[in-house]
From TrEMBL:
Its cofactor is FAD. The keyword Flavoprotein applies. GO terms for molecular function: (R)-2-hydroxyglutarate dehydrogenase activity; FAD binding. It comes from Kingdonia uniflora. One of its GO terms (cellular component) is mitochondrion. Its EC number is 1.1.99.39. PANTHER family: D-2-HYDROXYGLUTARATE DEHYDROGENASE, MITOCHONDRIAL. This is D-2-hydroxyglutarate dehydrogenase. SUPFAM superfamilies: FAD-binding/transporter-associated domain-like (SSF56176), FAD-linked oxidases, C-terminal domain (SSF55103). The keyword Oxidoreductase applies. Pfam families: FAD-oxidase_C, FAD_binding_4. Keywords: FAD, Flavoprotein, Oxidoreductase. The lineage of its organism: Eukaryota, Viridiplantae, Streptophyta, Embryophyta, Tracheophyta.
Amino acid sequence: FGSTATTVQRDPSFSILSSDDIDYFVEILGEKNVFQDEDKLSTANMDWMRKYKGSSKLLLQPRCTEEVSQILKYCNSRRLAVVPQGGNTGLVGGSVPVFDEVIVNIGCMNNIISFDKVSGILVCEAGCILENLDSFLINQGFLMPLDLGAKGSCQIGGNVSTNAGGLRFVRYGSLHGNVLGIEAVLADGSVIDMLGTLRKDNTGYDLKHLFIGSEGSLGIVTKVSILTPLKLSSINLAFLACNDYLSCQKLLLEARRKLGEILSAFEFLDHESMGMVLTHLEGIRNPLPSSMYNFYVLIETTGSDESYDKEKLEAFLLRSMEGGLISDGVVAQDINQASSFWRIREGITEALMKAGAVYKYDLSLPVEKMYNLVEEMRLRLGLSAKVLGYGHLGDANLHLNVSTLQYDDSILAQIEPFVYEWTSKHRGSISAEHGLGLMKANEIYYTKSPETVRLMVSIKKLLDPNGILNPYKVLPHSPLP
Ligand code: FAD
Ligand code: MLT
Ligand code: ZN
């Protein structure tokens, strides 16, 4: 370990788990859903990046909302701290205990409740895995409005709780728009039914939004209703090379202007990110091997008319090539080639893990300025680290990653607080889509004003007065300024 050194202390107001507590959980959940064994706990105590490790002695797997309610009611009355956990693919240390919090994983709650083929509204339990939902919908002629590299493990409850962005955001927008309803269980066990399926509903405060992106700090999301788009018949994917960052930006503008409504993804990776994937992942080939370019861009179009869409894309590519924005490029000829292109972009996170230590930043920045930060970071770190820039260019979301063989506090000191100060100076966000978790709870002020944070703290106190839900995460541990 050795990521962001955390100086957080265990909150002494929390109780220590007793054998009576275990007996109670066995009584309500049955032995099969109460886990104390080393194997299961060591996996659940450690995050996907293997950077954060807790020491929980108990993992609970409820099978229905009523069981979640009973668990939380009991934990609240006993002052037992709880960490809600989904697929445990989060990248900011939010999904694992910091100390001995009880882990509550709702992965067994994975039923689809209903799907309306006319409206495209899906209602499901929050433990459904994203990829399974997408496969279900594809069979119905629809798809999930979000897609991310962790789709095989992450759960929709985790996606909603982190307000995950991902690869389709540029087309379908945020979960704040797509999630129509939520059922959540509060810290005291009360079940809040906000599981509406209406597009329009202005009856009072729209409280479901509090749970979207609150990273398990306000309640456990148990059910979700979500608006899903139709799966259109014609999908094209181009893998392109650009020589400089300015060309990537201009290409984005051109894509918006010329591809218009059929644009469904606009992603980028730099030369270092491509090198990382080629070095550390097996079976990957650079689709544009003749030369290593400085930047690669993936542009996907999704529409309903194959010949019209192809014509539109081809004309756009030709113009961009002639205008010098693109240096080289290839359009996927079939689904296999398209997934091999996506594998390059989606594989960067995994390749970085294989390379050793990784310092990961997820920033919203003005597109024009975004890559300056990557270059400045390279200058700061010199040969001591690899600095990668990739991300969701169409959403102005940069993933700045620093890769070294081992964690080293002197490297961390070169990166932080510089990266946060730089982002704040440009009025960006220090967490575009991954959340704050444990990693950035104390850094919230770089993006949010003290008054805003104070209001968040009041909301947290109202909904979870004993602070049992995901303590030490999201909100700052240090006193408010
Ligand atoms: P977890 O990691 O288990 O939990 C994440 C947070 O949500 C924690 O704070 C946890 O307490 C809380 N939580 C989980 N379930 C619930 C629930 N039911 N109720 C209340 N709180 C809950 N993220 C993006 O935004 N875009 C990407 O493109 C993207 N790509 C990724 C690619 C890879 C390879 C990996 C490993 C991660 C990626 N992520 C991405 C990050 C991560 O996958 C997302 O944050 C995802 O939404 C987390 O879902 P999860 O089920 O794994 O949640
Ligand atoms: C991505 O876009 O690849 C994900 O957010 C994961 C990452 O930032 O590495
Ligand atoms: Zn991302």
